[in-house]
Automatic annotation (TrEMBL):
Name listed for the protein in its UniProt record: General transcription factor IIE subunit 1 (Trinotate prediction)
InterPro entries: TFE, TFIIE/TFIIEa_HTH, TFIIE_asu, TFIIEa/SarR/Rpc3_HTH_dom, Znf_RING/FYVE/PHD
GO cellular component, one term: transcription factor TFIIE complex
Domain HTH TFE/IIEalpha-type as annotated: residue spans: 10-101
Family, as annotated: Belongs to the TFIIE alpha subunit family.
This protein's record includes keyword Nucleus: no
Transmembrane regions listed in the UniProt entry: 17-38, 86-104
Length: 240
Protein backbone atom coordinates (compact mmCIF):
# COMPACT_ATOMS: atom_id res chain seq x y z
CA UNK A 1 0.00 0.00 0.00
CA UNK A 2 1.49 3.33 -1.11
CA UNK A 3 1.03 6.38 1.11
CA UNK A 4 0.50 9.95 -0.09
CA UNK A 5 1.85 11.39 3.18
CA UNK A 6 4.39 10.11 5.68
CA UNK A 7 2.47 7.63 7.90
CA UNK A 8 2.08 8.32 11.62
CA UNK A 9 4.10 5.23 12.56
CA UNK A 10 7.16 6.68 10.80
CA UNK A 11 6.68 10.07 12.46
CA UNK A 12 6.13 8.52 15.89
CA UNK A 13 9.18 6.28 15.59
CA UNK A 14 11.58 8.99 14.45
CA UNK A 15 10.35 11.38 17.15
CA UNK A 16 10.69 8.68 19.82
CA UNK A 17 14.23 7.80 18.75
CA UNK A 18 15.39 11.41 18.42
CA UNK A 19 13.91 12.49 21.77
CA UNK A 20 15.39 9.43 23.51
CA UNK A 21 18.93 9.33 22.11
CA UNK A 22 19.79 12.71 20.60
CA UNK A 23 20.45 16.30 21.69
CA UNK A 24 18.08 19.28 21.62
CA UNK A 25 19.72 20.55 18.40
CA UNK A 26 18.96 17.27 16.64
CA UNK A 27 15.39 17.30 17.97
CA UNK A 28 14.85 20.82 16.61
CA UNK A 29 16.22 19.96 13.16
CA UNK A 30 14.14 16.80 12.83
CA UNK A 31 10.97 18.56 14.04
CA UNK A 32 11.32 21.24 11.35
CA UNK A 33 12.06 18.72 8.59
CA UNK A 34 9.08 16.57 9.58
CA UNK A 35 6.88 19.63 9.09
CA UNK A 36 8.45 21.06 5.92
CA UNK A 37 9.66 17.82 4.29
CA UNK A 38 12.61 19.44 2.47
CA UNK A 39 14.44 22.71 3.17
CA UNK A 40 17.61 24.48 2.16
CA UNK A 41 20.35 25.14 4.68
CA UNK A 42 19.89 28.93 4.94
CA UNK A 43 16.15 28.65 5.58
CA UNK A 44 16.67 25.90 8.15
CA UNK A 45 19.24 27.94 10.06
CA UNK A 46 16.92 30.96 9.97
CA UNK A 47 13.95 28.95 11.26
CA UNK A 48 15.98 27.31 14.01
CA UNK A 49 17.81 30.49 15.01
CA UNK A 50 20.98 28.45 15.35
CA UNK A 51 24.65 29.16 14.72
CA UNK A 52 25.79 27.79 11.33
CA UNK A 53 28.78 25.97 12.85
CA UNK A 54 26.56 24.30 15.45
CA UNK A 55 23.98 23.48 12.77
CA UNK A 56 26.51 21.81 10.47
CA UNK A 57 28.00 19.85 13.35
CA UNK A 58 24.54 18.51 14.23
CA UNK A 59 23.83 17.75 10.57
CA UNK A 60 27.04 15.75 10.17
CA UNK A 61 25.97 13.62 13.13
CA UNK A 62 22.48 13.04 11.69
CA UNK A 63 23.86 12.27 8.24
CA UNK A 64 26.39 9.80 9.64
CA UNK A 65 23.51 8.07 11.43
CA UNK A 66 21.72 7.88 8.05
CA UNK A 67 18.75 9.92 9.25
CA UNK A 68 19.23 12.97 7.04
CA UNK A 69 20.05 13.06 3.34
CA UNK A 70 21.84 16.03 1.79
CA UNK A 71 21.30 17.14 -1.81
CA UNK A 72 23.32 19.81 -3.62
CA UNK A 73 21.72 22.01 -6.25
CA UNK A 74 23.73 24.36 -8.46
CA UNK A 75 21.99 27.39 -9.92
CA UNK A 76 23.45 29.90 -12.36
CA UNK A 77 22.64 33.58 -12.06
CA UNK A 78 22.28 34.72 -15.67
CA UNK A 79 22.65 38.36 -14.60
CA UNK A 80 26.09 37.93 -13.06
CA UNK A 81 27.09 34.67 -14.73
CA UNK A 82 28.01 33.21 -11.33
CA UNK A 83 26.95 29.75 -10.15
CA UNK A 84 25.75 29.27 -6.58
CA UNK A 85 25.45 25.98 -4.71
CA UNK A 86 22.47 25.40 -2.43
CA UNK A 87 22.30 22.61 0.13
CA UNK A 88 18.96 20.91 0.74
CA UNK A 89 18.10 18.45 3.51
CA UNK A 90 15.32 15.93 4.04
CA UNK A 91 14.66 12.96 6.30
CA UNK A 92 15.63 9.67 4.68
CA UNK A 93 12.89 7.55 6.24
CA UNK A 94 13.88 4.18 4.77
CA UNK A 95 17.56 4.32 5.69
CA UNK A 96 16.57 5.69 9.10
CA UNK A 97 14.30 2.72 9.83
CA UNK A 98 16.98 0.24 8.72
CA UNK A 99 19.69 2.02 10.73
CA UNK A 100 17.56 2.04 13.89
CA UNK A 101 16.73 -1.65 13.55
CA UNK A 102 20.40 -2.51 12.98
CA UNK A 103 21.57 -0.53 16.03
CA UNK A 104 18.90 -1.91 18.37
CA UNK A 105 19.53 -5.44 17.16
CA UNK A 106 23.28 -4.99 17.66
CA UNK A 107 22.72 -3.92 21.28
CA UNK A 108 20.46 -6.92 21.90
CA UNK A 109 22.94 -9.34 20.32
CA UNK A 110 25.77 -7.93 22.46
CA UNK A 111 23.69 -8.46 25.61
CA UNK A 112 22.92 -12.05 24.57
CA UNK A 113 26.61 -12.59 23.80
CA UNK A 114 27.60 -11.23 27.24
CA UNK A 115 25.14 -13.61 28.87
CA UNK A 116 26.61 -16.58 26.98
CA UNK A 117 30.14 -15.50 27.88
CA UNK A 118 29.23 -15.39 31.55
CA UNK A 119 27.96 -18.96 31.42
CA UNK A 120 31.12 -20.10 29.59
CA UNK A 121 33.57 -18.18 31.76
CA UNK A 122 35.83 -19.90 34.25
CA UNK A 123 33.79 -21.61 36.97
CA UNK A 124 36.73 -22.73 39.14
CA UNK A 125 39.73 -20.92 40.61
CA UNK A 126 42.77 -21.81 42.68
CA UNK A 127 42.73 -20.40 46.22
CA UNK A 128 46.52 -20.28 46.23
CA UNK A 129 47.65 -18.77 42.89
CA UNK A 130 44.29 -17.54 41.57
CA UNK A 131 44.47 -19.45 38.27
CA UNK A 132 41.06 -19.97 36.66
CA UNK A 133 39.68 -23.14 35.09
CA UNK A 134 36.67 -23.93 32.94
CA UNK A 135 34.36 -26.93 32.83
CA UNK A 136 36.43 -28.57 30.10
CA UNK A 137 39.47 -28.66 32.41
CA UNK A 138 37.74 -30.57 35.20
CA UNK A 139 39.52 -33.79 34.22
CA UNK A 140 42.92 -32.13 34.60
CA UNK A 141 42.32 -30.70 38.07
CA UNK A 142 40.34 -33.54 39.66
CA UNK A 143 42.50 -35.52 42.09
CA UNK A 144 41.15 -39.09 41.95
CA UNK A 145 42.82 -40.03 45.24
CA UNK A 146 41.33 -37.24 47.35
CA UNK A 147 38.25 -36.40 45.22
CA UNK A 148 39.36 -32.78 45.46
CA UNK A 149 40.14 -30.27 42.74
CA UNK A 150 43.84 -29.49 42.66
CA UNK A 151 45.61 -26.77 40.71
CA UNK A 152 48.10 -28.25 38.26
CA UNK A 153 49.96 -24.95 38.32
CA UNK A 154 50.83 -24.76 42.04
CA UNK A 155 49.09 -27.70 43.69
CA UNK A 156 46.69 -25.48 45.62
CA UNK A 157 43.03 -26.21 46.35
CA UNK A 158 40.62 -25.31 43.54
CA UNK A 159 37.09 -24.24 44.43
CA UNK A 160 33.98 -23.45 42.41
CA UNK A 161 33.33 -19.77 41.72
CA UNK A 162 30.10 -18.10 42.68
CA UNK A 163 29.23 -16.44 39.35
CA UNK A 164 25.47 -16.73 39.63
CA UNK A 165 25.14 -13.09 40.69
CA UNK A 166 26.67 -11.44 37.58
CA UNK A 167 24.75 -13.89 35.38
CA UNK A 168 21.48 -12.95 37.08
CA UNK A 169 22.41 -9.28 36.78
CA UNK A 170 23.06 -9.60 33.04
CA UNK A 171 19.80 -11.48 32.52
CA UNK A 172 18.05 -8.66 34.35
CA UNK A 173 19.64 -6.10 31.99
CA UNK A 174 18.58 -8.15 28.94
CA UNK A 175 15.06 -8.47 30.32
CA UNK A 176 14.84 -4.71 30.92
CA UNK A 177 16.17 -4.04 27.42
CA UNK A 178 13.51 -6.28 25.86
CA UNK A 179 10.82 -4.60 27.94
CA UNK A 180 11.90 -1.01 27.25
CA UNK A 181 12.63 -1.40 23.54
CA UNK A 182 9.71 -3.63 22.59
CA UNK A 183 7.62 -0.57 21.55
CA UNK A 184 10.41 0.47 19.14
CA UNK A 185 10.47 -2.98 17.54
CA UNK A 186 6.68 -2.92 17.13
CA UNK A 187 6.82 0.50 15.46
CA UNK A 188 9.60 -0.68 13.14
CA UNK A 189 7.53 -3.72 12.12
CA UNK A 190 4.55 -1.46 11.44
CA UNK A 191 6.73 0.82 9.28
CA UNK A 192 8.10 -2.12 7.28
CA UNK A 193 4.53 -3.06 6.31
CA UNK A 194 3.93 0.32 4.65
CA UNK A 195 5.53 1.16 1.32
CA UNK A 196 6.47 4.79 0.78
CA UNK A 197 6.38 6.38 -2.69
CA UNK A 198 9.54 7.90 -4.15
CA UNK A 199 8.35 11.48 -3.52
CA UNK A 200 8.36 10.76 0.23
CA UNK A 201 11.60 8.77 0.22
CA UNK A 202 13.52 11.24 -1.94
CA UNK A 203 11.46 14.43 -2.40
CA UNK A 204 12.19 16.49 -5.49
CA UNK A 205 13.57 20.01 -5.18
CA UNK A 206 10.83 22.10 -6.72
CA UNK A 207 11.08 25.59 -8.19
CA UNK A 208 9.42 26.90 -5.02
CA UNK A 209 12.11 25.25 -2.86
CA UNK A 210 14.83 26.73 -5.05
CA UNK A 211 13.39 30.25 -5.03
CA UNK A 212 13.06 30.10 -1.25
CA UNK A 213 16.72 29.05 -1.00
CA UNK A 214 17.81 31.93 -3.23
CA UNK A 215 15.74 34.40 -1.19
CA UNK A 216 17.08 33.07 2.14
CA UNK A 217 20.67 33.32 0.91
CA UNK A 218 20.16 36.92 -0.22
CA UNK A 219 18.02 38.01 2.76
CA UNK A 220 19.55 36.53 5.88
CA UNK A 221 17.13 36.52 8.82
CA UNK A 222 13.96 37.24 6.83
CA UNK A 223 12.98 33.82 5.50
CA UNK A 224 11.62 32.51 8.80
CA UNK A 225 9.15 35.35 9.33
CA UNK A 226 7.83 35.06 5.76
CA UNK A 227 7.38 31.28 6.04
CA UNK A 228 5.53 31.64 9.34
CA UNK A 229 3.20 34.24 7.82
CA UNK A 230 2.52 31.94 4.87
CA UNK A 231 1.74 29.08 7.25
CA UNK A 232 -0.72 31.22 9.23
CA UNK A 233 -2.47 32.31 6.03
CA UNK A 234 -2.63 28.70 4.85
CA UNK A 235 -4.11 27.57 8.19
CA UNK A 236 -6.74 30.33 8.08
CA UNK A 237 -7.78 29.45 4.53
CA UNK A 238 -8.04 25.75 5.39
CA UNK A 239 -10.32 26.56 8.33
CA UNK A 240 -12.74 28.54 6.17
Amino acid sequence: MLESAVPNCYITLIKSIIYTFYSSSHVAIISVLIYYSILDEDTLIDLLQIDKKQFRSAMIFLRNDRIIKQTLRKEKDFTTGLTSTYIFYHINYYTFINAVYFKLDKIRKNLVKDEKNLTLNAVFSCQNCGKSFGDVEIGQILNMDTDELTCYNCGGLVIENDHDQPLKSNKCILSKYNEQFEPFYKMIEECYEIELPINLIDPEISEEHLQRAIFSRANQGQAASIIRKQNKMSEKSSNL
